[in-house]
Amino acid sequence: MSGLLGSMGFGGGFILLIYLNLFTNALQPEAKLTNLLFFIPIASLSVFLHSKNKLLEKSVIKKSVLSGAIGVLIGCILAQIISNAILSKLFGVFIILAGIRELFGKEQNDNTEN
């Protein structure tokens, strides 16, 4: 279910991380690794299908890959420095803030009519 939701852009990775943390007692680094290993094939399939259907905006791909790579490097460095207890709390705060943003953020109109 997590993979299906993730490939459709519904945040399946968050669902998987929450499940791993709450119901399997996985440590934060183990949960993140499992999520990453789960994400790679799902993301690859999604990119393939979106490319096949000409749904990718190539103008933003380079910026997204570059900023994502920088974010991963910074995250890896911080994950080595910060303890599991603090990482878990920071993740919880991030999830709460993301939820608040989704509930109360500005609604975007998608006018894609031609």
List the helices and strands and how they pair.
Layout (H helix, E strand, L loop, with lengths): L1 H6 L4 H12 L4 H25 L5 H24 L2 H21 L10
Helix pairs in contact: 2-3
Description:
The protein has 114 residues and is mainly alpha-helical. 77% of the residues lie in helices and 0% in strands. The protein has helices at residues 2-7, 12-23, 28-52, 58-81, 84-104. Helix 2 runs antiparallel to helix 3 (28-52).
Which characteristics define this entry?
single chain, 114 residues, mainly alpha
In the predicted model, the low-confidence regions spanning at least 5 consecutive residues are none
Largest sheet: none
Please state the structural category: mainly alpha
Number of strands: 0
Report the average pLDDT across residues.
Answer: 80
Radius of gyration: 16 Å
Distance between the termini: 34 Å
Number of helices: 5
Percent range for β-strand residues: under 5%
Please tell me what the overall shape is.
Answer: globular
Could you estimate the helical fraction of the residues in percent? over 70%
Instruction: Note the run of SSEs as H and E.
Output: HHHHH
Brief characterization of the structure:
With 114 residues, the protein is mainly α. It has helices at 2-7, 12-23, 28-52, 58-81, 84-104. The longest helix is centred in the middle third of the chain and has 25 residues, at 28-52.
